[in-house]
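COMPLEX REQUEST
Ligand: S-adenosylmethionine
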Amino acid sequence: MSDAAAAQESLEGFLADEITRMYEEVAEHPEGEFHFYHGRAGAELFEYDAEDLDRAPAGAVASFAGVGNPHLRADIQPGETVLDLGSGAGLDAIIAAMRAGPSGTVIGVDLNPTMCRRAKVHAAESGANIECHEGRMEDIPVPDESVDIVISNGVINLSFRKRKVMEEMYRVLRPGGRMSVTDIVSGKQLSQAIVNDPKLWAS
Ligand SMILES: C[S@@+](CC[C@H](N)C(=O)[O-])C[C@H]1O[C@@H](n2cnc3c(N)ncnc32)[C@H](O)[C@@H]1O
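STATUS: Structure written out below.
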């Protein structure tokens, strides 16, 4: 392995640890202070449907940590197969399952097995049947051309390898499939101090 590749791998490991710590903290202590929107107040700000939030388990709503609302444009139909990249504590996956219905399939993917377990507990509470696969969005543990729509909320910005994530999304989508992604981008070059700060990468 080249020095550059080894440095990247070590940075990615460091970042994964920080991401794991940060989102577990939101899930365990949603009442805490975070420098990003979260919980019901965040979801309402992003125009989530109040009825969806009332129907979803309180724990999934309290742990919500997205940056927008992928459901506004997703138009998920009954029977569709939906992939939620970086499914966290499960709110977006649970809302996707409300739309896809009992004939649909919702698959979450999260690098943190604890978040996957949480999402499954919340899904069971809501009566939704979601799968959650532990894995990375840079190497999605889902077969080629098996998904009708990919949703994701505030996750792709966390990756060092965004091109690979996009390639993976195209790989798993069926021909004619769709994506509905909400994320954050910067219109200006960030300072090196920000780029090198794992806490800011992870949030
Ligand atoms: C912003 S939260 C997702 C919010 C979620 N959609 C919700 O409804 O609350 C970020 C999630 O992405 C996961 N994540 C971060 N990097 C990832 C990666 N490379 N591959 C898969 N999941 C990742 C984190 O573990 C965390 O659970």
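REMARKS: Strands lie at 81-85, 105-110, 130-134, 147-153, 173-182. The chain has a mean pLDDT of 91.
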